[in-house]
Specification:
The structure is a single chain. By secondary structure, the protein is of the alpha+beta class. It has one domain. A four-stranded antiparallel β-sheet has the order 1-2-3-4, covered by helices on one side. The protein is rod-shaped.
Length: about 80
């Protein structure tokens, strides 16, 4: 009886740890996707500035990118993601 309860406890801890790790992995994947999309949008905005020689603004979904003579930056949902 004690062995069964101990085995059930160990399995429960393992499943709980797996669930926590899965949530953390999903969060990290989402953050990397946001950063990758922001980097691509930043490159597109800076290329637009390089071609037109004037400030370039790109709005897509929840992203806002601005490239000018001094800097280029991307915001996602109002938060700064990347600035060069």
């Amino acid at each position: 009886m004690t062995d069964s309860i101990l085995a059930l406890l160990i399995i429960s801890i393992g499943l709980g740890s797996l669930a926590v790790c899965q949530v953390q992995l999903h969060y990290q994947q989402r953050q990397h996707l946001i950063k990758l999309t922001a980097a691509r949008l930043l490159k597109e905005a800076s290329d637009g500035y390089r071609i037109q020689h004037r400030q370039t603004v790109i709005d897509r979904a929840n992203y806002h990118a601005v490239a000018g003579s001094n800097q280029a930056a991307v915001w996602y949902q109002g938060r700064l993601v990347i600035r060069l």
